Amino acid sequence: MHKLSAVFIGLLIAIMVTFNGFLAKYMDDYLSVLIIHIVGFLAVSLILIIRKKKFNLKQGIPIYLFSGGAVGVFLVLFNNICFKHMGVSLTLSLGLLGQSIASVIIDHFGLLGMAKYKFRTEKLIGFFLIFVGIVVMITY
């Protein structure tokens, strides 16, 4: 079930990058990022109101965990910029390569409080295939 959900997330990301990229084509990159996040804020607010959730900020949360929103702003901004020059498929492919590299490093060293999952050399086959796929996408 979780793997199917992850595939669904991938579909949603492709749709989101496309919508956000087209919005950025109609207006300034920074203004589009602001609008995207305001609409996201309103959507989440509506969901919380419908579900009658209370805003309960727990104590002892490490401060760096609140930086995800700022990372999200840069993510959307760079996606929009790349979308204009490379399209959806290459933007997402290169992004997924970056995500894969970062996640292997985080897993291997147990960064950010994660459990350690040592890097296995068999994963190099997957990285090679991803790299070849991206080369093919860039070339053709």
TrEMBL record:
Keywords: Membrane, Transmembrane, Transmembrane helix. This is DMT family transporter. The keyword NAD does not apply. The chain crosses the membrane at residues 7-24, 30-49, 61-78, 90-112, 124-139. InterPro entries: YdcZ. The keyword Magnesium does not apply.
